[in-house]
Amino acid sequence: MVRLTLLIAPLLASPALAIANAQGNPLTRLRRQDDPTQPVGSSPITTFLTAYLGRQNANNSCSHRDLGFTGELQGKWYAVFGDTLWCSPSVTDPEQDPEGFHGMVRDSVSLMTENPLVVKDLHLNSDKPVAHQLQFVPFNEAWGETNLYGFGGTSLVETANGAGAVFYLVNANEAGLKGAGVAKVELVSGDPTVTQRFGDHGYWWVANTTPRYGDVAAFRDPQSNYIYAWGGAPTSVIDYFGAQYVYLLRVQAANAYDLNSYEYWWGKAAGGWKKGQPLTEFKAQTAVAWNTGQGQIVWSEFFKCYIFVHLGPGSGDVLLRTATTLEGPWTPDVKVFTATPIDGGLTYAGVAHPYLDSSGRNLTISYTNNNRIEVVRVTFFKWRG
User: Fold this and answer.
1) How high is the pLDDT of residue 14?
2) CA-CA to 43 of 20 to 30 Å: which in 104, 121, 154, 322?
3) Contact 65, 371 (CB under 8 A)
4) In 3D, which of 138, 136, 114 has the Cα closest to residue 59?
5) pLDDT tens column, 220-275
């Protein structure tokens, strides 16, 4: 059942109606005034209705999972999930899964449907009576990887000739993060399949010397021919404020498999985009955001701007910020919903489902809540005073 949980509209005093205020992080006051990642201006998102839709599950498998970043390939939309924990062999409802470990993969891919609460899991194994998903980004023993390695991926992005790409972060667990990489994705027997991972060790950007590009978000810009990827600071940056900065690269979509074609944002003061010159200075002036979790970018036809969907760090607040260019600046965050943590678990990873309404009037959003995917729909209004 759809449950209306929040209605926000200016100049109305009903308990169900309120003025939408930007949710700025108080820590921004402690940062430098010449920091270009600080919010600027005001958001066009002022009046909206948010409806909680329910939890998302697969119609042909059963597991607990997180993330689920969406992306398009050949006219269909797919979700890339992170850790996918299989339910017990005979279980068809995750909420009925008995305690215990029943197997898992570190990432998986599913086909989205017209119902945001239903996905079709792909690459299923031979488990009976309920099949479970196989891993999407494969590990390579020749690179020293094992089935325990994590490959956190974000949205699929289209490249050229019907193929796509996925950015992922190689996580060696106790040994730490290795680096961020790109894989080629092709439709094999109709399903998105990783057919090649690039780099001598399966990644291009070493985690301790370069940003973890793609770990925050990846986006195929419909307003240009570019793919953009956002990533957190190198692991060698250990001071709290410095470690929270987010950096940006881009590449012409057709050249996504060529490392030399990538352009890196050095900040306006340093000349902006530089092709083939990886960023080596990690500071406010070369960053594009600060203290955001993983999220997703969409182009809004309704507002004629970009929207970044994410959750507030350490909170269940679903936040939206806007910009007219992907380099920023971004407006202050607007809170459109607050999730209630399930059993005290973590809430994180804002995911957008723009394919459900091309007009942009409605934006469906999902997020992770203690290894469950919950979904809300935000309907926007343009206030006319």
Assistant:
1) 25
2) 154
3) yes
4) 114
5) 999 999 999 999 999 999 999 999 999 999 999 999 999 999 999 999 999 999 99
117-127 as b/e: b if 16+ CB within 10 A: bebbbbbbeeb
Is the Cβ–Cβ distance between 94 and 102 less than 8 Å? no
Cα separation, 155 vs 137, in Å, equals: 13
CB neighbour list of residue 161: distance below 8 Å, 6 or more residues apart? none
Which helix or strand (DSSP H or E) is residue 55 part of?
Answer: strand 47-58
- What's the token pair of residue 210? 């370069």
Pairing of strands 191-197, 205-206: unpaired
Euclidean distance between the first and the last CA atom of the chain, given in angstroms as a whole number: 34
Prediction pTM value: 0.93
Residue 342, φ and ψ in degrees, nearest 5: -85, 120
Q: Tokens standing for 347?
A: 């809430």
The rounded distance, in Å, linking the Cα atoms of 104 and 94 is: 14
Residue owning tokens 């950015």: 167
Contacts of 141 (CB under 8 A, 6+ apart): none
